[in-house]
Amino acid sequence: MVSIGGHDPTLGTVQLGQLIELYREHGRLPELEILVGRAVEQRPELVTGRLIAARVAAETGKLEDAREQLVPLVSDDFASLPRDVTWPGSLACVAEVAATTGWRDVAVAMVDYLRPFEGQLLVVGRVWSPGAAARFTAMSLAALAEWEEAEEH
């Protein structure tokens, strides 16, 4: 079980991010919905937890729930997303949810926000990587039906 808390407020959500990757790879992501919900209830101030909740909702077919989770985090031109060690992972989660839900406005913004990471692996601290920036840029471009440019990534 993942414990949310401790001395580092982001540790629990980073661990949850790792757990989600494992469950996703094994086709068991729906099993984590309750755990993710509890994490957000326990620590609603942790943006990463809310991003993970949006991602799980999107990947389990609850597209409206995913967008609802994301609205408060992106409606202020992404100012709610901390520019800290979690920033690259946050971009990955937002890009994935935007692409999955077909949220074009957010996908456009993600292409711009991901541009400085071009050619790099997105890493959260030293413990979790959602993947290459190019992957999330390509997802965002595909959501915009920019097929040729998406394939270049």
Give an overview in words.
This protein is mainly α. The protein contains 8 helices and 2 strands; from the N terminus they run ααααααββαα. It has a two-stranded antiparallel sheet. Helix 3 packs antiparallel against helix 4 (63-74). The protein is globular. The relative contact order is 0.12. Residues 1-5 have low confidence and may be disordered.
SSE layout:
Layout: H1 11-25, H2 33-42, H3 47-59, H4 63-74, H5 87-101, H6 104-114, E1 121-124, E2 128-132, H7 133-143, H8 147-152
Antiparallel strand pairs: 1-2
Helicity, as a percent range:
55-70%
Question: N-to-C SSE series?
Answer: HHHHHHEEHH
User: What distance lies between the first and last C-alpha atoms, to the nearest angstrom?
Assistant: 36 Å
Alpha-beta classification: mainly alpha
Give a short synopsis of this structure.
By secondary structure, the protein is mostly helical. 61% of the residues lie in helices and 6% in strands.
